């Protein structure tokens, strides 16, 4: 069965960096696009980023563009999110999700999330 | 693309049917998904391409619409259906979610 396990969350000061990881299993990782979605405490879902199955295409929300970088290591079936210049409003649970096969992408399977708290 | 859900909250009883509406600020064809989230849990994917059920999702959930107006209908509500529901457009990047509809008993 599909399993996605996020890690790397924690408490970080504003302006600092953090890298999240998402270990995938139960499917052929390099066949699928992967997403990051976040949820601030008590708020709704916010799409963050997606990377295509081959890593060639990457898209970002306007709120993180230029600060966050999505990447993948297919040899380790792992998705990453490098977060730089963190701000208070980046505080959220970060979920990784697997998309379907095909061009049009949306989250299908979700991990349990990892909490990032940006605070001085 | 802005996604507007209505209502933002909804009260219903076990056995009722409810409908949630999601409106896009521009035409998204049929590229709309619905998600369910219960407190403290990760979201669950329900519907994609407006009306296609994800594997394992019961047929009590149904979706319809096209262009800018979409609906999610849940029939014969059971206690486990009381949750928050989100729509998401994936026609154009950046993808965007609606603000959610909280379905309460």
Description:
The complex is a heterodimer of chains A (120) and B (105). Chain A is built from no helices and eleven strands. By secondary structure, chain A is mostly beta strands. In chain A, strands 2, 4, 5, 6, 9, 10 and 11 form a seven-stranded mixed β-sheet that branches. In chain A, strands 1-3-8-7 form a four-stranded antiparallel β-sheet, with no helix packed on it. Chain A starts with a strand and ends with a strand. In chain B, a hairpin with a 6-residue loop joins strand 9 and strand 10 (96-97). Helix content of chain B is 0%, strand content 49%. In chain B, strands 2, 4, 5, 6, 9, 10 and 11 form a seven-stranded mixed β-sheet that branches. In chain B, strands 1-3-8-7 form a four-stranded antiparallel β-sheet, with no helix packed on it. Chain B has strands spanning 3-6, 9-11, 18-24, 32-37, 44-48, 52-53, 61-66, 69-74, 84-89, 96-97, 101-104. The N and C termini of chain B lie far apart (31 Å). The mean pLDDT of chain B is 97. The A-B interface holds A 37, 44-47, 50, 59-62, 95, 100, 104-113 and B 31, 33, 35, 37, 42-45, 48-49, 54, 84, 86, 88, 90-91, 93-100.
Largest sheet of chain B: 7 strands, mixed
Global morphology of chain B: globular
Classify the beta-strand content of chain B into a percent band. over 45%
What is the number of helical segments of chain B per DSSP (H or I, 4+ residues)?
Answer: 0
- Portion in strands of chain A: over 45%
Q: What is the element string of chain A, with H for helices and E for strands? A: EEEEEEEEEEE
Mean pLDDT of chain B, as a whole number?
A: 97
Q: What is the terminal-to-terminal distance of chain A?
A: 40 Å
Runs of chain B in which pLDDT lies below 50 for 5 or more consecutive residues are none
| Overall 3D form of chain A | globular
Tally of helical runs of chain A: 0
Please compute the radius of gyration of chain B using only Cα atoms.
13 Å
Helical/strand content category of chain B: mainly beta
Element-level helix/strand string of chain B: EEEEEEEEEEE
